[in-house]
């Protein structure tokens, strides 16, 4: 039995993505088979597509071709393994599939069917259609696990100590990259927890972010945040990377900086001098957390923004859109 999927046979740019027939995945013990209705795009998709060039060579996983990208899905259960009792055929579900353990291509979400460990599946929020549900998992779980609760007690691969979220009630939180996938969820979670929120993004996103709850907005194209704010309790730097240290002067002694993408950060000595905690973690699949978050969607606490939608066959164009940047919310593939 075959399905339509996006496959690639070599690393490279968006042009390596091919829409073609592929085998429907076999169902194994502990899994459900999902008929996919929509797929959410995330940065690890293009990192894997081009061979994880941003990672040190020793961190790059072994990859087998043909490769199917993707982790975030929303769809309907088409089959369940004999030992799965929590889900039934016909239920609408969403998931972040096999991440990070499937980072070498085992998640295989750019397809009409995906097999998923039942522990990583949750029932789709009733208030969201499949497009919006597929846009949520990785970005929302990232914000949740950084800010609210970690996924499990697995050793943090990015630092010796476990990542510890900080209490947000009554605190001032600055979110850089606030209009993007992780950022726009971070704004909402911080506000839900009772924080004062400063959102940093380009000026085109001001109205959008104020509607999500931002108390103050800084247009980074006109003003450097570190020149106009100080005594911040927590900075969530969604882009992260080598430049995250720029935000250290904005933090009070005892404050915290959470770079979502930590690679290249080299200002630990300065952070120590300033009495600032720098911490990061690896987002992990969790059906239990997605079930909890579904409740927040259904109660109207959270909403998800979609930047653009492309048919599965146009995954190449979706990746080209991602490469242009300045994304508001998430890019989504609709699956026929």
From TrEMBL:
Residues 12-333 form the Enoyl reductase (ER) domain. Keywords: Oxidoreductase. Pfam families: ADH_N, ADH_zinc_N_2. GO terms for molecular function: oxidoreductase activity; zinc ion binding. PROSITE patterns: QOR_ZETA_CRYSTAL. The keyword Oxidoreductase applies. InterPro entries: ADH-like_N (IPR013154), ER (IPR020843), GroES-like_sf (IPR011032), NAD(P)-bd_dom_sf (IPR036291), Quin_OxRdtase/zeta-crystal_CS (IPR002364), YIM1/Zinc_Alcohol_DH_Fams (IPR050700). PANTHER family: ALCOHOL DEHYDROGENASE RELATED, RETICULON-4-INTERACTING PROTEIN 1, MITOCHONDRIAL. This is Zinc-type alcohol dehydrogenase-like protein.
